[in-house]
Amino acid sequence: MAKKTLIIGGGIAGITAAQKIAQNGGTALLIEKEGHLGGNFAKLTYTFPVLADAKGIVTREIKTAEELAGIEILPRTTLESCRGEAGNFTVELGTPSGRRTEQVAAIVVAAGFHYMEPTAYTEYAYGRSAKVVTSLEFEKMAAEGRLPQGPARVVFVHCVGSRDKAKGYRYCSKICCSYSAKHAIMLKQANPEAKAYVFYIDIRALGKGYEEFIREAMEKYNVRYIRGRVAKVIESGDKLLVRAEDSLIGNPVEVEADLVVLASAMEPPQGSRALAGILGIATDEYGFFREAEANVRPCHSSKEGIFLAGSCTQPMEIAAAVAMGGLAASEALILSR
Amino acid sequence: MRLKIDEDGIRTMVEQSIGKSLTSCLQCSKCGGGCVHSEEFDLTPRQVVESLLDCQDGKVLDSRMIWLCGRSCSACQAVCPVGLPLNEIMAVLREEAGRRGIEPKYEKPSMIYYKFEHCAKHQEEGEASESSTGRETQPA
Questions:
Q1: Is A78 helix (H, G, I), strand (E, B) or coil?
Q2: For the segment A52-93, what is each residue's pLDDT rounded down to a tens digit?
Q3: Domain spanning A4-113+268-336: CATH superfamily
């Protein structure tokens, strides 16, 4: 019988890796620290660049994984220790019913990412005004039908924590341009009376259908894009004043808003360095897991037999996380025969 | 108007004074959006940096912008994602303008900012800047 593969993290990358291992004759042990599978994907209402039902898709993928005979799913479970080498690891798991020891041939780390909490951005009145929310909070508002009603004006702010080495991260979080466009479209669909503004430095929406998606937001949904990073958000009565420089006109501008949505950075999953310590693998300067070689071995960690998948390696969109989950699964299968 | 791009200019002197390279500027324009003098800009702060990179020395030294900037204010620097000390850059440029005999385009703000009021002014955002009410403005 094939040896087991341990998969750490039940988001879309981990679910995909587990499915592919089981569908190809292997056995997967999928552990998830939360009580349910789905990860960050499960917090979304719609996907981009195709506005598809996110909840429906993730529910379908979870169901497929649950029904496959070769997958054992352990919720509320974490990795406690790891010994051994490629082909023969001994791992100790902390489960709700106590410790459990397992022998596995390979390990796939699919620990996901965390949305940065923009508490350092006092200039945006985050935490001070209830009308300044993060994109993740906007997703929740949309899911619960709490989006602004009537002729409300909503301002979307790009690059909060990304491309900011003073208060955040130097890197670009890659997906914010696209999900902000998605949010603006969601707003306009739910409330055509609303006005949407997006403040950007430059638009990074690369991939099939992405450029068209952004153009659709501008042309079909009449979302106004203004080039310039927002400088400050000022509370003014029951409104918010958003100040920036329109860097195309070269002039400071001001927009009165009812809601400001901050596109906060994707950061490494919480506890990524501790997990890397247990596994004995390397992380980069930010805490993302480091790949052995960025171009042709993106899913190899610094240790043989331990593979990486999804946004715990770098900010990435769902499609890339799925592809990487599949690649990690095929690498793991080589060791488990 | 077509500009002639050059490689030799006061950029080097500015970079030596602040101990940082101007190439770190992202051109995100966050600096200009929050300045209390934004009503009075001719060039915006990021345009000053961009112009310095292309060695448009005359354009920068003749601008009003470099004189608007308060010597002890650091509001833009505090929010700059790459930590460029814009107020120091403007101070260096004012000095150079002085050396070249260029008349100050706007002197009052730096006088105001030597006093304590400048702190209160920055805290009370949303109100018109003192200099834009006309009281403090002097002909350019």
A1: strand
A2: 999 999 999 999 999 999 999 999 999 999 999 999 999 999
A3: FAD/NAD(P)-binding domain (3.50.50.60)
Residue A206's pLDDT band (cuts 50, 70, 90): very high
Q: What is the pLDDT of residue A1?
A: 57
A185: tokens are 């479209």
Nearest chain A Cα distance for residue B135, angstroms: 22
Domain with residues A116-265, CATH architecture: 3-Layer(bba) Sandwich (3.50)
A129-138 in b/e form (b: 16+ CB < 10 A) is: eebbbbbbeb
CB A233 within 8 A of CB A242: yes
What tokens were used for A163?
């491309």
| ipTM > 0.90, yes or no | no
Q: Where are the domains of chain A?
A: 4-113+268-336, 116-265
Contact: A123, B34; criterion CB under 8 Å: yes
> What's the gap in Å between the CA of B123 and the closest CA on chain A?
11
A252 and B82 in contact by Cβ < 8 A?
Answer: no
pLDDT per position as a tens digit, A30-45: 999 999 999 999 999 9
